[in-house]
Amino acid sequence: MRLHPPTGTASGTRRLAREHPVALLCLLLCSTGGALAALALPAALGHTVDRLVSGGPPPWSGLLLCAALVLAETGFDAAAAVVGTDTTARLTASLRTRTAARVLAAEPRRALAVPTGDLTARLTARTADAASAPVTAAGAVAGVLLPAGAIAGLLLIDVWTAAALLLGAPLLVALLRTFTRRTADAGADYQQAQALIAHRLTEALDGADTIRAARTGAREYRRVLEPLGTLAEHGRRTWTVYGRATGQSALLLPLLMLLVLAVGGVRLGTGAIGVGDLVAASRYASLAVGIGALTGALGALARSRAAARTLEPLLTLDPLPHRGGAPVPDAPGRLELRGVGVVQDGRALLTGVDLTVPGGTSLAVVGRSGSGKSVFAAVAGRLLDPDTGTVLLDGVPMDGMEPAELRREVAYAFARPALPGPTVEDTIAFGPWTASPEAVRAAARAARADGFVALLPHGYRTPVADAPLSGGERQRLGLARAFAHPGRLMILDDALSSLDTVTEHHVRRALDARAGRCTRVIVAHRLASAARADRVLWLEEGRVRGTGRHDELWSDPDYREIFRTDAPTGTPTAPGSRAEAWTAAGPRTEAR
Ligand SMILES: Nc1ncnc2c1ncn2[C@@H]1O[C@H](COP(=O)(O)OP(=O)(O)OP(=O)(O)O)[C@@H](O)[C@H]1O
What we know:
InterPro entries: AAA+_ATPase (IPR003593), ABC1_TM_dom (IPR011527), ABC1_TM_sf (IPR036640), ABC_transporter-like_ATP-bd (IPR003439), ABC_transporter-like_CS (IPR017871), P-loop_NTPase (IPR027417), Type_1_exporter (IPR039421). β1 and β2 (347-357) form a beta hairpin. The chain has helices at 12-15, 21-53, 60-105, 108-111, 116-131, 133-157, 159-167, 169-206, 208-213, 217-225, 228-269, 275-289, 294-315, 373-380, 403-409, 424-429, 437-446, 450-454, 471-484, 501-512, 527-532, 550-553, 557-562; strands at 335-344, 347-357, 362-367, 388-393, 396-397, 410-414, 489-493, 519-523, 535-540, 543-548. 59% of the residues lie in helices and 10% in strands. A six-stranded mixed beta sheet has the order 6-7-8-3-9-10, sandwiched between helices. It has a four-stranded antiparallel beta sheet with strand order 2-1-4-5, with helices on one face. Bound molecules: adenosine-5'-triphosphate.
């Protein structure tokens, strides 16, 4: 299928750092303030100790300064925690909304290239991981400031004690680098295994009835959990990396402290520094070796980076392009396909489709299972862009129509419609505009849904989750939604397949009542749909095998074969007969 030129702006996750600048600045100031207070404390403490040991009146001002610095450090840390949590929550919400919007705006088949379970994991857990990066990074600034300031403090007190500390610095830096790299690798592998389990679980939940009927529950259980071993392995790997880094720093850091104190002690003995200096030097040394605390922040940043990498393909999905063009003239929806072809993974799904459906008429799309009917339906309403050729509505190429207008003018109904909206009424009203209560009831009547809705505990106000719906009832709600949003083109992709013949007859009459005002494209397996349509498009292996009126096409035995019943005689059903065949085709599902 056609690859659209990239229209995305800056990478979605990189954009995060530019969102909520005030909150991030506040966080930075709080972290920096906390770090500066922590750095000033040893100097104040050393000075106060010197005053204390030198005798004389108690150094109240020094003691008060120390208390104030402790309070300031605690206050800044608390404020940083509150601002950080709030900002991460906001960034997560923003990233999730943006990613979901990209997925929904893209050509459905392109977005659906990521399996459902994986997509869910990315939109939930991965967005939270990725969105924590700016706050973690802002916090890490203080994590760097503290050791750097502590080394500067040590240098000011005594060069030799500082040199003792710096002796071990290269080892510490090497430790941190290895830790970050290994955590990032282990984190990415862990997330991949998680996504695979999520994907298989979604598949299993989708096919729960099939699994139950085939009694393959135990096998399915094993299949879903099969990546658990890999997941555990990557989890163990992460903990091993953490454990090793903690163990190494537990050995290295006290040794460094010991070295600094030993050199400080010798320098105190020679009179180069005072007691207060030694107290301050020991505090600075412990702040400097606190660089090990950065490991947590670096680990979190590595996880965020791995998560951000999984979001990039979604955030760079191109929306359906819009060329901009003339307004669509007021007309009943003439649909034209000129040389339309669709290719997926090198396989032609539709080839050279040329067709004009006069405005206000109906077209039945028939053909064997897999002949390309749904692909045709997707192209006809621009759920999918063709790789070759053009689709026009009332003379205007669909990719030149303003997207909101296009969605207002084209109504879809599917075999297994999604039912968004808390209540039945909201579900029918859901669409490019919210249909009025009167329109909802009229649409429900047209789709023959009013009868069963009236029997629900709260009628139209019944929550969809509490409404036990059969397949046919779900289809009727999907149809009602299409009726409630009348445009100039209505596309029913197998949307009558679960209706009984009487209901189907009434729905067809409601569709016929739109003749002259709206073009109707009806993908169908039943003979009655073809017989009733103004025109039939007969597809075979993605090509037009024939077009014309049903009774004209009926003379072709191959055409009759499409509707062959499984009656004992094996003879085709007469045109218009209600005893139609139900092909082995599975129900068509509304885009996720
Ligand atoms: N996203 C896709 N990727 C690859 N192949 C696809 C995709 N969508 C459809 N196809 C293939 O295109 C062919 C036509 O599919 P389509 O769903 O249009 O058939 P159909 O005529 O509607 O069948 P049915 O009557 O069973 O619903 C099938 O062979 C199908 O496997």
